Amino acid sequence: MSEISAVVFGSVNYDLIAKTEVFPLDGESVIGQNFYTSAGGKGGNQAVALAQLGVETYMVCRIGDDYYGEELLTSLQTFGVDVSMVGIEKDMNSGIAHISVNDSGQNKIIIVRGANGTCSDVEINKIISKLDTTADALLLQMELPLELSLKAAQYSQKVKKLVVMDPAPAGIIPLEAYKYFDYLIPNETEAETLVGHPVQTKNQISNAARTLLDRGVKEGVIIKLGEKGAYYINNVESGFIEAKKVKAVDTVAAGDAFNAGFTAYLLKGNSFVESVAMGVTIGSLAVTKSGAQESMPTLEEVDSFLNTTK
Fold this sequence. Notes:
This protein is an alpha/beta fold. The chain contains nine helices and 13 strands. The longest helix has 15 residues, at 272-286.
């Protein structure tokens, strides 16, 4: 068993993915190139990514009692995630994500929460039990009701366990809630929603990160910049880390890979900046494969990539 462990409280969705040369305009139909399915959801993706990187990972979520729920559970188990705290909601569909991916690897996603939206204090009690015993960190996103995630974050900080928040999909976080996060990791779009101004130029990116840090984030803010890498800031240092060039197949779950990579390497004792760099690397590797959970790189793949790009 791994010496480090984490709880992921988040969504699991069954992804329905269509590849197309270009995205359709409003009212337009286009002919797609390919269609495939994949187990996904931001929570499920991050849990698989952590497990692939050698972290003992516990998934807390709900699925429906349908075909998709069975497939989601099987996928998590296949990748080594502990599913003992996954709840099954009767007579409810599991979460679904309808995803389009264009030729440049960019994606557009529609999420139907399904059973994810039925999470309650039952899940909070499960999280508390694990934080009180073995878990070193709690990973959160915004595909579940925010008030529940904030309850979990507040307790995690109370017992001095790491809290990593991915504010995706883009939404507003109450100003008084930022103090419950050790690390906040939005992408450019999510950061723009949070700060209320464009986040495109280097100055805008650094200003947005500083604004978010000043709202009370405990340890640091990272803004994911896709193929451009990431910007990081804490109370001591800040800067940009460039991503190594890779051939993008699709960007589905790249941000989830980044978050898990950053967290895994931080838990393993690496510095803040070193862990950001590993997040960039692991996010880059994820875009070289199709799908969501199956695109999460293993430790061996990470080591091989680093050895060939020195």
